Amino acid sequence: MVVTMKDGCRLHVSDEGPRDGPVVVFANSLGTDMRLWDAILPLLPTGLRVVRYDKRGHGQSDVPDGPYSMGTLVSDAEAVMDHLDVAGVTFVGLSVGGMIAQGLAVKRPDLIARMVLSNTAAKIGTPAFWDDRIATVRARGMAAIADGVMERWFGRDFRATPKLAIWRARFCDVSPEGYAGCCAAISGTDFYTSTSGLRLPTLAIAGPEDASTPPDLVRETADLIPGSKFALIRRAGHIPCVENPAEYARILTEFL
C-alpha cells in the first residue's frame, strides 16, 4: 500500500491482520526498513492488526531531498494512521522510531494508547556527531560507515554470525540522501521536556551492548514517564528484535 503525504512524498505501508483486531504500529530505526520486524511478527499473539511503514528516505518509500525535520517524520506517522483510520494503538518505535513515538504521543495523544520505546532516547547524539555522519555518507556513500554502524548496532554474538552480512548489505542499500535527511532530523531533536509531560503506559527496551543508545540512556528517557517499565535483553545491542526475536516478542507480548 502507498500513502501519500501532503508534500507529495509517498510512503510504503503494510497493514496486516483483522480489521477489528488490536492495532500495533511499528516504526523502524535509522538505516533499516519495515523488514526490521519480520522475525518477531510470527511470535506475537494472533489476532493483532499490524501496521508497518518505511519512513521517508528508506525502503520502498520516496526519497525527497533532505534535510528532514522530526516534525515531518512525526507528521508522516500521523498521516499513515489517519489514512488507515486507526487510533488508540500500541506504538512500537525503535531508535528514531522511538523518537517519532514520543513526538506523536505529545502531538496526538488520541492516536497512541500505549508506547514501546525500544533502544531510543529523548535526545540521541550531538549535532557534531550527526554532521560528520551526513558529510561522510554524502561524500563517500553508505559503505563508508557500514562497518562502524554494524559494531554500534549488534552485540558480539550476532556479529559472529552470517546474518551480519545480510544487515550490512541492507544498510548499504539505503539511499545516502534519505539517511542523511533522517540524521538531520535526529540531530535537531530534544524531547526531554515534552516527553516528561507524557502520561501513558510505556515500556522501554534496551540492550547492554548497544553503543548507539546505551541502557542508561534508554532508562533515563523511560524515567521521564511515571510508571514506565524497563526491560533489558541480555547479550544484545541496538536492534534486539533482530538479535533475539524470541525474547523481544516475549517482552512485547507481556506488555500487550
What does this structure look like?
This is 3-oxoadipate enol-lactonase 2. Pfam families: Abhydrolase_1 (PF00561). Keywords: Hydrolase. With 256 residues, this protein is α/β, with parallel strands linked by helices. 46% of the residues are buried. 41% of the residues lie in helices and 16% in strands. It has one domain (2-255): Alpha/Beta hydrolase fold, catalytic domain (Rossmann fold), CATH 3.40.50. It starts with a strand and ends with a helix. The protein has helices spanning 70-84, 96-107, 127-140, 143-153, 156-159, 163-173, 176-187, 192-195, 215-222, 240-243, 245-255, and strands spanning 2-4, 10-16, 23-27, 49-53, 89-94, 112-118, 202-206, 229-232.
Which regions have little confidence, pLDDT < 50, spanning 5+ residues? Answer: none
> What portion of residues belong to β-strands?
15-25%
Number of H/I helices: 11
CATH homologous superfamily (4th level) name = Alpha/Beta hydrolase fold, catalytic domain
Q: What radius of gyration results from the CA coordinates? A: 17 Å
CATH architecture: 3-Layer(aba) Sandwich
The computed structural class is: alpha/beta
Largest β-sheet summary:
8 strands, mixed
Query: What is the name of the CATH class?
Result: Alpha Beta
> What average pLDDT do the residues reach?
98
What is the overall shape? Answer: globular
Could you estimate the helical fraction of the residues in percent? 40-55%
Strand/helix succession: EEEEHEHEHHHHHHEHEHH
Kindly state the number of beta strands: 8
Distance from N terminus to C terminus (CA atoms, Å) equals 26 Å
CATH topology: Rossmann fold
Total separate domains: 1
| Spatial ordering of strands, largest sheet | 1-2-4-3-5-6-7-8
